[in-house]
């Protein structure tokens, strides 16, 4: 198989253009979560729990003090200025063995066990010491500042629900009940293959393969294991061979380049020579990233989704965001697949013409002081202009039409929600000093 083979298979194409939601439906229907398996908790970040996790233990495991202070018998302290004798002190991590008698107090630290006989803790702020005599201010009720065993988690409580993504908090909850292994959907191992004779490393010419770096990094942010499948020229036989190998090592493959209607768009032209369960080359009614190849490669007993993204960097990113990332997240069992879609006020015109397509425009979205989202387009647009993504934190979604004028409402996918908040992020919390006064050097 050679270049010529690929070229000779070019044929007239009457593939209809389909709306974005239809393309998404095709991809999503084919990408489903794998069988759950057990994973060590320390490797489970961003995995999705495949089952409810119930506690078999009591948290906290014993009654302990909520404050630094003195453990007392509350009944001794029903009136103000009670005087008690301090008989012992209990630090966190120590055992409390001596039983407290009426008239006695035990110095106690936060988290230390309440000694037998004690029924409350009086905070140190409300006490004075006169030798080993403790003088209490105010009255103490039974149970004051005592954290009871099981106050947080009881046996049988579900600490993590099936379907939850395991973030730091869920991992802490699982750790707190002594769960060292958890049943999750394995995140897909994703291979990334760059195609194109023009890429440095493939042919003579010298376009650097920025797509692979971008996609491998984006997948790493998702906590998906990745395989860098390297660069391949527009050579049908080589592409078939590499994709065949990839199905053995990967649960999904992303290619860039070669899916357009050019004579050398070899990913598109060779897909029918691969064993596939389903394959579909699409023209999607979007700009950029109109051409898209989706296939389920047959690697019996498994199938391996192939996402054939266009080569231009902005197109590759848009196509990744709309199809590959949500589908891979679905394979990982995640519930929230697409980036958060929000809307705000255009602070500059978003110009476009009627052309039957939904446009995606690199944009900057910022939360203003009055908490409205303000959105402006980002630099010169163009599917090859990676620099227009450089300062963007959002993709504006412009439905077919004449665009959105300044002051109008525009929708965006937030690529980086943290970057919505800049300037004086503490202002909503009631701080009236600028952040630069709090943190020198921070604007
Ligand atoms: P294609 O989709 O194959 O027609 O590629 C379109 C254009 O995208 C090419 O002319 C390259 O300039 C660019 N391109 C393709 N692959 C890559 C890549 N891996 N990294 C950066 N740019 C690329
Ligand atoms: Mg190409």
Structure description:
Helix content is 19%, strand content 30%. The chain is elongated and about 95 Å long. It has a 7-stranded mixed β-sheet with strand order 1-18-20-21-17-15-16, with helices on both faces. A 6-stranded mixed β-sheet has the order 9-6-8-7-11-10, with no helix packed on it. Strands 22-25-24-26-28 form a 5-stranded mixed β-barrel. With 443 residues, the chain is of the alpha+beta class. It contains 9 helices and 28 strands.
Question: Any chance you could write out the topology, listing elements then pairs?
Answer:
Blueprint: H1 3-8, E1 17-18, H2 20-30, E2 37-40, E3 48-49, E4 53-54, E5 64-65, E6 69-72, E7 83-90, E8 104-108, E9 120-123, E10 127-130, E11 133-136, E12 146-147, E13 158-160, H3 168-176, E14 181-185, E15 190-195, H4 210-221, E16 226-232, H5 236-249, E17 252-256, H6 266-270, E18 276-284, E19 286-287, E20 291-299, E21 302-309, H7 313-331, E22 341-346, E23 350-351, E24 358-367, E25 373-377, H8 387-390, E26 394-398, E27 403-404, E28 409-414, H9 435-438
Parallel strand pairs: 1-18, 7-8, 15-16, 15-17, 17-21, 19-24, 22-25
Antiparallel strand pairs: 2-14, 3-14, 4-13, 5-12, 6-8, 6-9, 7-11, 10-11, 18-20, 20-21, 22-28, 23-27, 24-25, 24-26, 26-28
Helix pairs in contact: 2-7, 4-7
This protein binds adenosine monophosphate and magnesium ion.
